[in-house]
Amino acid sequence: MTEIKSDHSQIRNNSSTPEKQMKSVPSYSNQRVGIFVDVHNLYHSAKNLYHGRVNYSELIKYLVGDRQLIRSMAYVVKSEGIIEQPVRPTAGTRRGAPVLSTEAAFFEALENAGLELRVKDLQVYAGGMKKADWDVGMAVDAIRMSSFLDVIILVTGDGDHLPLVDYLKWGVGRLVEVAAFKRSASAKLQDAADKFINIEEIPKIIIKRGY
Length: 211
Prior knowledge:
Helix content is 38%, strand content 22%. It is α/β, with parallel strands linked by helices. The chain has a single domain (30-207), classed as 3-Layer(aba) Sandwich (Rossmann fold).
């Protein structure tokens, strides 16, 4: 029995080596990169873990590096009630300038970071059930755009995107990177990606104050 355990241990050690090597994915300056951000997932992860918000400008800059950014998409849902909360004008606000809602200011910050917004309304069903996700839409966009991208970066910790990662890797032969807060991200999603980026380790990534 001792020999069997030793053999199995050796098999496990050997099998882990390719996985570690696969995570060290080389990047080149001519790689075409597409970024797809699950804003709902990131928003709640940052809020629950750090009581803050993500600095999307720093996030995009870090993820792209010296590569070529082709498209950067952010998937957002209009939240019920948030749009009614006005943002207080600052001392430097021009008199007569329109006052943005909390939600509108947040969306504007995303656009200022260079993200293209895909927006949908929160769906409220009979009985009070609410649905607010972009899983299918984000997957469809990533697959469609994969024809002119070399690297696809999914910014989400949602394990529902696991089939998308597998298809992009094995179906169309693209490199797939996943960026998320490690503590709240699906372990299977982290393992499936060619490279996992722990957002918590990116400098200046959390903003403690509102936009």
